[in-house]
User: Fold these one by one.
Assistant:
Number 1:
Amino acid sequence: MIGMNTATLKSKWTAKQMFIIAGIWLAFLISFITRLSWSTIMPTAIDSLHFTVQQGNSYVTIFYIGYAISVLPGGMLADKFGYKKMLLAAVFGNFIVMIAMVFMHGYWMGFGLRFILGLVSGPDLSACLGIITEWFDGKKRATATGIFNTCTSFGLTVINIYAPSVMIHYGWRATMGVTALFPLAALFFAYFALKGNAPFPQQFGIKRVNGEVKAESSWARLKGAINNRSVWMLAITGLFATGAKWGVTNWANLFIVKSLKFSVITAGTAMSIFGITSLVSMIVAGWISDHSKWSRHVWASIFMAIFTPTIIGFALTPHGNLPMLYFWTGAMGVGAFMFSTITNNLSVEVAPADQRGTVSGFINAFNQSGSFLAPVLLGQILASTGSYVSAYLIISVFPLIAVVALLFVRESDADKYASVSTKNMEK
């Protein structure tokens, strides 16, 4: 009876753990609201600013270039200076850039600000995943990650609820101004939510040389971290799957308005449904993974395989058919996000304890490379064929490539590496 009560107690979340999740959830929510702000207002803003579709799309691309450049250094810095500090720095950077975008004039000023927004956002995911490993054990971690991941979908829902209405009544600059208030609120909340001593604090590897204890350098940790098959397979997975996810997501509003000929408000409603279905699916994915005997990479493969048919269904939505638009947009939300709970969890679980920020940053660099390459590919296909549908059908192959890569991931690789590191340290 005592054993059962102890097990039950350990399975429950503490109030502090709930507060921690709320803090990182809100902080990362801000990252998604700010990065998606341009995609949401783009159909109207490009007309106001006299941009071409390709110029408007370049604002999406340049953000992900900046983000891809900074995610690996951001993860390494998070390992060095602490996850909380890097997360708060990223949120503060989002606030400053969004304020500046309210006053942008001309193509190149906005282009530069979107690049900087990508740079300052780089450490956010690694820092958040690192915080989860510090506060949650292995039996709670996937569920915690799933709940945390819902902020990405909720960000889509939130911005598509308020942005179209604010834009229609007050213009796109006002929409940017409202969006800039979110990082400010998140900064204060996260600062107080993340206070306290974690039960599983970040551990730094050491090497013993002639009896002297020396900490490993960031570059030594990076070299050791990527000497791992599962890390590389997750990187390939991210390149294709995350590229497809953000390629179709960032183009969805534009596709619905310009190709399917629905209104901006209808597009916003459809993308809110997308956000809701993806939100629910990520929580479900985390719960299944924590309570199943199957390996996490198997579940990730199953969930990712759903993505391809939903992209095809969305691309082939009949013009003017509102129920089908809502159905396929909602289904694509499940396909685009359900797998991410498990792949994000794997990115820290295959890493040694002292390299979680570095490994997740390395994998996220490939994720974001896919995120900026996919819109470029979509733009090139659109320019050459004039068909949004063709662009979506081609990118629907990407998740299938990612499924194959996932089959070679093994969660036990971190343990093997850790044992090798321990032997090296003892020599």
Number 2:
Amino acid sequence: MDTGLYIALLNPTIALALGAAFLVLWTYQRHRPYLAVLGFSYCVSALGFLLQYFTLPIGMSLTKLVSNICFTFAGCCLSGAIVARYGRKVPFVGIGVLAGGGLASFCWFLFVAPDLTWRVLAMNFGFGGISLLVAAELRPVRNNGPTEKILFVLSLLSGLNFFVRTLIVVIAHGPFTSYDGFYGSSYWTTALLSHALLSLLIALCLFTAAALDVMKALKAETYTDPLSGLLNRRGFEERAEFLLQRCAAAKFPVALVLADLDHFKALNDVHGHAAGDRVIADFAAKLRTAAGARGAAGRIGGEEFAVVLPLTDLAAARLFAEAVRTLYSAGGVDGLPPGTKVTASFGVAARSGEEALQPLMRRADEALYKAKKNGRDSVRLSYERPETLFVPEPSWTG
């Protein structure tokens, strides 16, 4: 087997291996369909490379057309999957115009005005445009993390590779008049090697992104309460500590609100645990909406919830608690009999000085206890200062 054939088989082998790896990964993460699209695109590109070197019984011209259709389809799938992975809207129209224009030009210079050099330019310029379009879509998210930045750079390099490398090689060693000696030319060699390198780098970056997704999901499961969708106690305390540190450094106020569903045990006994679960989920949804992106809400006990509110003093935190209390007590809960009223009690404390989380929670809990003791469905405040060291007064008896 000659060296040219070894080089020709390099890309399909790499592409098949990467495609299989992405498809296997997708079988374990079915909720991420972009992985299946990536696997499919790499497998299709492998077929395209094989058909560049081996001719089907339909003839050379039609074989080259099928090969470039595979390349075009694979490029569109790969580009769309990368953009979709980062939550961007896939530019189907842009990708379709660039891919369709490149393929239409290829067909023109294959069947109407046969010219190998222009076929090379048409396909490469189409793929280069798609690569730069992907880079443009990744530009707003390129600073979100290392994988976004690397893929943005790789998309730019891929676009430059299709444009600049192709032009340089064609100008230096072209034009190409036929396929005789084409697969031993500097163009084909540089195309195969650059494609192999960029394919590996892009795939490794996407594998890293998929691994980070799994780690992020595992972390979310560790810190999230599955019933309410809020932070669990561990997750809430870590987030609250972080927000307290940030607010202390910037000298910003911060408040803590504790909430407890009233008569929850009785509700469970009368209507069943399924109804109790719906009550918890409904209250959590309202609490999450009220807290917004600025605050951190968590379910820290069976029917007990907590919210840390940065940039919020005691008066503003009281308004927050009253708003949630009023909203919740005024509405019904799906699945409960009509007219069934569910309420909650609230304790509010504003941080004083460099007060730590536990003393702050203790004060808010004391205020919550007063709300429960004084009739429930109410908000009580803690006006107390943080706990201080008790120093006994000197005795004057002697």
